[in-house]
Amino acid sequence: MSGQAASSEPEGWFTVTRVVDGDTFWVDDGSEKGLKIRLIGIDAPEPRNTGTRPKGFFGAESSGYLQELLRDKRVRLEYDVSRYDRYRRTLAYAYLEDGTFVNAELVRNGYAMVMTMPPNVKYADTFNELASKARKQKKGLWKESPSLK
To answer: If DSSP codes are grouped into helix, strand and coil, which group holds residue 92?
Structure first.
């Protein structure tokens, strides 16, 4: 399922209801269940073992960072070419009311890596640049492990 083409125009503000992990959260869209959002262009480590992926290094920290960032907040969603992934999650770039670009913030601070999935590549260059800086500055995922010193 390739997903349907969608406008990049925002559809208003959504209240965040729950953070699943470092790159996925739910918003209240007026439906009974809500809308599950998967942030485009990034991949955060898993905070726990799942059916398909093992718990990742820095997963709990990444998830906790997104929870802090989104707690009691509203987000504006921006879409790229494909609106849904194969799991029917809504793919989006998210912005806080103060203008913070959530996807970029996670990469900038080392809480997520870049994961480019064409055709959704609108901010790939920005994310790659931020990831390079985070690695050089040893932020988040890129911190030197105490066991390696």
So the answer is: strand
* Residue of 11, 18, 32, 38 marked active site: 38
71 is catalytic: no
- What is the distance between the alpha carbons of residues 82 and 99, in angstroms, rounded to a whole number? 23
Active site residue 135: no
120 CB contacts (<8 Å, ≥6 apart)? 40, 41, 80, 81, 82, 91
Structure tokens, 43: 């991949």
- Residue 78 appears among annotated catalytic residues: no
Instruction: Answer for the pair 27, 6: CB distance below 8 angstroms, yes or no.
Output: no
What would the pLDDT profile of 3-45 be if each residue is shown by its tens digit? 444 444 446 899 999 999 999 999 999 999 999 999 999 999 7
* Structure token pair of residue 65: 């960072």
- Residue-by-residue DSSP string for 3-46: --B--SS---EEEEEEEEETTEEEEE-SSSS-EEEEETTEEPPP
Residue ranges of domains in the chain, CATH in brackets: 13-141 (2.40.50.90)
Q: Which residue out of 9, 11, 18, 46 is catalytically annotated?
A: 46
Catalytic residue among 78, 89, 105, 108: 89
